């Protein structure tokens, strides 16, 4: 099952008009987001910058391993990720679909307009997103699923083998130092084996943005675990991340 949250989102705060480019960052939870442009997004409106293919463990390790704050400039990100950013200039009605873990940042809006988008996000069960992601009306939470929005057969057709191969070849490669770091940590990549807790204890779960492992928690505990200051140490990359890798995908699948 896929949960859906939606919101009408101003990509600029009231005081952001003419603001400088934001620092490059990434969301931590596995969320797929679609953005519908409500007006033409021109280059001088500070369109969102994205770095294609940077939703991987290696690229997240590059961001958090090389920069204590987990923030990069646009120029620094181009160099660190080995791929040039793209500006999402859009026409009214254009739809952008992306993995929210992809590196991105807001551009400098030098126009006299605010840029607004309609945002719809889909996420796996048990993920409690933080910030403005969780904005659906309380009366609708837990009721809407992806199956409530059926697509045509053509729209859901599986990609061909050639298209998958082409997409894989187009992904930017992680830097050599990141590969070396991950190789050195290979001996501690396996998460500690633990028994699967009973279902009633799984009120929520958070995911390590680096290694993809899950950690169960209480619903009231999840927001705190999503904060960097209260994060856990990820054994895979050797430094602090927002969520700890306590449980394997197999253990999660046994519950959900």
From TrEMBL:
Alphabetized Pfam families for the sequence: PhyH (PF05721)
Annotated transmembrane regions: none
Residue ranges constituting the CW-type domain according to the UniProt record: 196-249
Name of the protein: CW-type domain-containing protein
Keywords: Metal-binding, Zinc, Zinc-finger
Gene Ontology terms, MF aspect: zinc ion binding
InterPro entries, per database record: Fungal_Metabolite_Diox (IPR051961), Phytyl_CoA_dOase-like (IPR008775), Znf_CW (IPR011124)
Keyword Transmembrane helix part of the UniProt annotation: no
